[in-house]
TrEMBL record:
Record's protein name: Penicillin-binding protein activator LpoB
Family assignment from sequence similarity: Belongs to the LpoB family.
Species of origin: Xenorhabdus lircayensis
Known function: Regulator of peptidoglycan synthesis that is essential for the function of penicillin-binding protein 1B (PBP1b).
Lineage: Bacteria, Pseudomonadati, Pseudomonadota, Gammaproteobacteria, Enterobacterales
InterPro entries, sorted: LpoB
UniProt key word Membrane: yes
Biased composition (Basic and acidic residues): 32-46
Protein keywords: Cell outer membrane, Cell shape, Lipoprotein, Membrane, Palmitate, Peptidoglycan synthesis, Signal
Length: 189
């Protein structure tokens, strides 16, 4: 039985084999591609220059304002002050971190307040779920952050633009009540 099965399978296998005739490949005629007509490129004579970033001397702008604030009525020396980051309410781009650093430096020079360190502010912002680049600029957020840090005062600052002129507005607020103890304005050149 095994032999019969083996013979049948062998016959089927041999029947399925087909001899292939060798065919010559079809002739290939090379064709050159047609060149596309591209419209002529107009070349401008000059490449426009991007606008240059204007360098702002924040120290000269905020120093007189900080001096005024230090002499304001109702300000107690030696109290803890939170310098909130400067808010940009202009249509342009400003380096607000440099402005915030200039304000902090000017306050340190005056030696009227104990400024909350940046690292402590950053840690508190993370704990409260606030972004360090939060651009909403709400005074209530600033006061809430100051309360969390046990600060006595908060300095809120924003740069705004009116008729092409940029100004920085600063407000010193008492954290307990939200009362504005001092406000000042300076031109941003």
């Amino acid at each position: 039985m095994k032999r019969i099965l083996f013979v049948i399978l062998s016959a089927m296998l041999l029947a399925s084999c087909v001899t292939l005739e060798t065919q010559q490949p079809a002739p290939v005629t090379p064709v050159e591609p047609k060149k596309k007509q591209e419209p002529p490129v107009e070349r401008s004579e000059k490449v426009p220059q991007p606008p240059k970033l204007q360098s702002i001397n924040w120290n000269n702008i905020v120093q007189p304002l900080v001096e005024q604030m230090a002499k304001a009525n109702g300000v107690d020396a030696g109290k803890v002050l939170l310098v909130d980051s400067v808010k940009n309410n202009t249509n342009g781009s400003l380096r607000t971190l440099k402005a915030t650093d200039a304000i902090t430096d000017a306050i340190s020079i005056e030696q009227v307040f104990q400024v909350v360190p940046k690292s402590q502010v950053h840690t508190a912002q993370q704990a409260l779920g606030l972004s360090s680049e939060d651009s909403l600029g709400l005074r209530s957020k600033s006061i809430g952050l100051a309360r969390y840090l046990n600060a006595d005062y908060v300095l809120y600052s924003e740069v705004s633009s009116h008729n092409g002129q940029r100004d920085i507005d600063m407000q010193l607020m008492l954290v307990k009540t939200g009362e504005i103890l001092w406000s000042g304005r300076g031109d941003v050149n």
